[in-house]
Specification:
The complex is a heterotrimer of chains A (about 325), B (about 500) and C (about 160). Chain A has about 325 residues and is of the alpha/beta class. Chain A contains twelve helices and ten strands. Chain A is globular, with a radius of gyration of 21 Å. Chains B and C meet through helix 9, strand 2, helix 11, helix 19 and helix 20 of B and helix 1, helix 2, helix 3, helix 4 and helix 5 of C.
Chain lengths: ~325, ~500, ~160
């Protein structure tokens, strides 16, 4: 007992001493926080990736949820953690582009994180109820223009991708004065937002393809557009390229891994290697593609550029259209 | 495939020993996870999901459903034994279950909870199989205005759990409603009562609040006076459920199952309102009304029936529309999708064998729950034998670990500890805890659906009477308010008369 | 039931709290967005409604306690706390506050052990031996269950780490 205790103490002491040299990273389990609750899209994606990472990372990967405030609680917890690579975050489009762009009162900024890799891209689709009679995006836009202030769209909450997505699409099609011309109905998640469309509570939804896929495949909803450059399997809808709105390609969901800003290069490099291996895992690939996501790994450098670019695009639009939350 | 072929194909799928084994494994995992505060059914299902990827579709889905069903029952074990409900839904079970445990009737309460759970579960599964299409169309008509009226009606149950002072019950409820508004505003995204704290932005965690409110005051009361006699009668947890008790609770079990089925079919409500509604209806209808909250076995039966009656019904919107009714069914959708099964109307067309296999597996799960649950009760009831001086410190440590584990948050531990103090003060000043809790659970739903409905109607209040469902709930609300007023007036008159006769007696000079 | 005096004090306390909520907390700590199309959609609407209900109920408690016949002294609950009770409650409060602050630095497992032992001594338990055993075994068992089975990273603290 005494011996193990000493060994334990020494282990920590050496880990603490060796902190600047990361050659043998990792020497203890790595905690990865999901800033959303269990069962959500981020949670499922993160757990699938961590299952694939388990045989690759030499130390256990402990995945835990830290939900609250649209991802802010978990993000802040990781930002404030030691930048030693033992506390990482599953960052998502909502927590690390839309919310920072829309909410000036957010307690963190994206510069406070260091991205080690984005592994999943979700194209955005706009869907309407198949009973609505609307089959093209132009018909939807015409409806908005003809009935100003009555058309409703649902989202997974304030500052989420579907909230911003719908506004960005409407803006691209020339709808002005968004705050007065359409009505935003926040709900508690993509599932509820789509339920609202199915019930007729809301007229349309522009969010990730994955939660919408079952409804589109069963014919209960009609997709109007997808924001990828190629058509998405199972979604019989034109791409934004075909529609002549390539600027909407910036509107995609993504999931990646990030740590606190001060994380050393060694950690980032190791993660780059591990992720490259993990995304080859067949079970993982199968799970992700079955949900309509595209597995696309970006190197740590590319990830940082990608997130910053997306943020810039969103932020410019938020300022231009006066969409800030305050 | 015709119906009979599909049924036969489904039967062959389930009739493999692996199916039953995975189902049993799932139920076992669920019961254990549910019995540990901090490990909810949701967490257990989320943790099990990755293991199902490698399994055959039917095995994986049965495993998850087993965890789900087991987890919901498992929550009643700590609720009864140590007043530490792991989910909001099982807190209704604690209202009468814990007093029973204190009276040395833990065995009875646990058995009753198991039987009520299994019966309600079976009823719910049968409803899923027989009325799925009809209940799904009901669910589709349930928008924010309907939700609002349902929650308003549900708030009238506060009167039933207020104890001897309705006004104090309402005050406790307003406190619960107020604490539920902490966090980011749902519609505008702005801060409310966050006091600049990042943790407060996310609001107060349900389970942290309810464990603080229920379990901690017991511990504080024990520490204050360890010699008090109410801490001494525990122990004999071997009392057996008596047949007459079971028989008179049957009506409440069936009523609770029906409530569970209806509320379960509506997406986004969850099990807690159903458990409380079932509890309050049972109390209203029972001749033993006075005994509710003091260890009435029918209360345990009603709460558990309402809680478990939801479990099968949440699959109705999932299977027939593809809508996840709660977080657990959202995870189960993931399991369907990974095997290229699309939940929704197409499932009945393309994979009828899977659907029928699921139905048969669900029925089997009710019976497996009976067996696994009976074993679990035998194992867990030794907790009732632990002497108070070891039990209460143990419960405190368990609560600290459990509350932390829900969201990996030390802040939640602080919330639990502070709510423990609030709960103890409420106990001293005779404010009932149950109305607080019901209001805290229903508060966000009430406010959100109200505001969503107003967004839909652009401010017109007419939307709240837009259809037969809303009008039905308004009528029910008015009816129960009238009954509450009548009961309160009658009780006040009785009390006044009793007081008058008491003063007369004392005033009468000794003859 | 509380005595008439206590009940009136409780009612006044509730009324005061409601007043604080209505005229201090809501104006200060509820941020109102720039655009609120309908008054009922303002984030302050619900808290205000709730505050008013609380205020009315607080007044109702005072009025009822003042007018209704008071409960006989024999039935009325005594809110007094005896000296040893107060000492134990105070010790518990201090212990819990200390617990909260040591979770992060000392770690949840070690803190829990100390809490357990402290409670066993605070209540003057006769089962001291088993108390000690449980104090060591329970936190360790919970630690291993939550970290190894449930995949929850229990706070380890900065002093001694468990595997």
């Amino acid at each position: 007992m005494k011996k193990t205790l000493i060994a334990l103490t020494l282990g920590t002491a050496t880990a603490a001493l060796a902190a600047p040299a990361f050659a043998d990273y990792p020497t203890r389990p790595i905690q990865m926080l999901i800033p959303y609750g269990p069962g959500g899209a981020t949670d499922l994606s993160a757990r699938a990736l961590s299952t694939a990472l388990t045989p690759i990372v030499p130390q256990p990967v402990v995945v835990s949820n830290r939900a609250g405030a649209g991802g802010a609680t978990g993000s802040v917890a990781v930002r404030d953690a030691d930048p030693d690579g033992y506390t990482l975050l599953f960052a998502r489009v909502g927590s690390h582009t839309v919310n920072p762009a829309m909410n000036p009162n957010l307690p963190y900024t994206i510069d406070e994180f260091r991205f080690v890799g984005i592994y999943e891209i979700n194209p955005v689709a706009c869907v309407v109820n198949s009973n609505s009679g609307i089959t093209t995006i132009d018909e939807l836009i015409a409806k908005v223009n003809d009935n100003p202030g009555t058309v409703l769209f649902s989202s997974a909450g304030v500052g989420t991708l579907p909230h911003f997505g719908a506004l960005m699409v409407l803006d691209a099609y020339g709808v002005t004065d968004l705050a007065d011309n359409v009505i935003h109905i926040p709900t508690e998640g993509d599932g509820q937002a789509l339920t609202a469309v199915l019930q007729g509570t809301s007229d349309f939804y522009c969010g990730s393809t994955s939660p919408a896929a079952p409804f589109v495949q069963s014919g209960q909803m009609v997709p109007l557009l997808v924001t990828s450059s190629e058509r998405v399997e199972g979604f019989d809808a034109p791409t934004v390229d075909e529609l002549g709105k390539p600027e909407l390609k910036a509107l995609v969901g993504w999931t990646g891994i990030a740590g606190p800003a001060g994380m050393p290069d060694e950690v980032s490099d190791r993660w780059g290697e591990w992720m490259a291996e993990a995304v080859q895992d067949e079970t993982f690939l199968n799970f992700m593609t079955s949900g309509g996501s595209v597995v696309e790994l970006m190197s740590p450098e590319d990830s940082v550029t990608f997130v910053n670019d997306a943020y810039e695009v969103f932020r410019r639009l938020v300022v231009e259209l006066d969409l800030e939350i305050d | 495939m015709t119906f009979m072929e599909a049924l036969a194909a489904g039967f062959t799928l389930v009739a493999q020993w692996e199916s039953i084994a995975f189902l049993a494994l799932g139920v076992t995992i669920g019961v254990i996870a549910g019995a540990i505060p901090g490990m909810s059914a949701t967490m257990a299902v989320a943790l099990t999901l990755p293991f199902t990827f490698a399994l055959q579709p039917i095995f994986g889905i049965l495993l998850l459903l087993g965890v789900y069903k087991g987890g919901i029952f498992g929550g009643s074990i700590p609720a009864i034994l140590i007043k530490t409900p792991g989910t909001p839904a099982s807190s209704a079970t604690a209202l009468d279950g814990y007093p029973m445990a204190e009276q040395g009737r833990a065995g009875e309460a646990l058995s009753m909870s198991l039987y009520a759970s299994c019966i309600a579960d079976l009823m719910s599964n049968l409803a899923l199989i027989l009325f799925a299409a009809w209940l799904a169309s009901f669910a589709l008509n349930f928008g924010p205005p309907e939700m609002f009226t349902l929650i308003v009606f549900s708030l009238t149950i506060i009167a039933g759990v207020s104890g001897d002072s309705l006004v104090k019950g309402i005050i406790a409820a307003t406190l619960g409603l107020l604490l539920a508004t902490i966090g980011l505003d749902f519609i505008g995204g702005t801060e409310r009562f966050t006091f600049g704290s990042v943790d407060m932005r996310g609001g107060l965690n349900f389970v942290a609040v309810l464990i603080g409110l229920f379990a901690l005051p017991e511990i504080i009361a024990y520490i204050r006076n360890p010699e008090a006699k109410e801490h001494r009668v525990r122990g004999m947890g071997y009392s057996r459920l008596k047949w007459p008790d079971f028989r008179r609770s049957l009506k409440s079990i069936f009523r609770g199952s029906a409530i569970g089925v209806f509320l379960g079919a509506i997406p986004g409500i969850g099990a807690a309102p159903s458990a409380f509604l079932s509890y309050s209806e049972a109390r209203r209808a029972s001749p033993n009304r006075e005994n509710f909250g003091k260890g009435e076995i029918e209360g345990v039966a009603a709460a558990e029936a309402g809680n478990n009656g939801v479990a099968g019904a949440t699959l109705i919107p999932l299977l027939s529309l593809g809508i996840p009714g709660d977080v657990i069914t959202a995870i189960i959708i993931g399991a369907f999708m990974v095997h290229n099964l699309t939940p929704g109307p197409l499932l009945f067309v393309n994979n009828a064998d899977i659907v029928y296999a699921l139905f048969i597996g669900l029925i089997a799960s009710s019976f497996l729950l009976l067996i696994v649950g009976a074993v679990a009760i035998r194992a867990f009831r030794y907790i009732a034998d632990i002497p108070s001086d070891l039990l209460f410190p143990g419960v405190l440590v368990l609560c600290i670990f459990g509350v932390f584990a829900i969201n990996n948050s030390i802040f939640d531990v602080a919330v639990m500890l502070v709510m423990g103090g609030v709960g103890y003060i409420m106990l001293l000043l005779r404010f009932p805890a149950a109305p607080f809790l019901i209001a805290f659970i229903l508060g966000p739903m009430l406010e959100n659906s109200f505001r969503q409905a107003l967004l839909m109607s652009r401010g017109s209040l007419e939307i709240f009477v837009r259809g037969p469902i809303t009008i039905l709930f308004w009528c029910l609300t008015i009816l129960s308010v009238v009954m509450i007023i009548r009961a309160t007036v009658r009780a006040a008159r009785l009390k006044r008369e009793a007081a008058r006769s008491a003063t007369r007696v004392s005033a009468t000079p000794k003859a | 039931m509380l005595s008439r005096r206590d009940e009136i004090l409780v009612g006044l306390g509730v009324t005061l709290m409601a007043a604080l909520i209505l005229w201090w907390l809501i104006p200060t700590y509820v941020a109102i967005p720039r655009r609120v199309p309908i008054k009922a959609l303002s984030p302050a609407f619900w808290p205000t409604v709730i505050g008013w209900v609380m205020l009315i109920c607080g007044v109702a408690v005072v009025i009822r306690a003042a007018t209704a016949p008071p409960p006989p002294d024999a039935i009325a609950d005594d809110l007094r706390v005896s000296r040893p009770e107060a000492l134990r409650l105070g010790a518990l409060a201090l212990l819990l506050i200390a617990t909260f602050f040591s979770l992060r630095t000392v770690g949840m497992v070690w803190t829990s052990m100390v809490v357990f032992v402290a409670l066993v001594f605070l209540t003057g338990s006769k089962n001291r031996f088993w108390g000690m055993v449980a104090a060591i075994v329970l936190p360790l068992a919970l630690y291993f269950f939550f970290t190894k089975v449930a995949g929850v990273a229990i706070p380890q603290g900065r002093i001694v780490r468990l595997p």
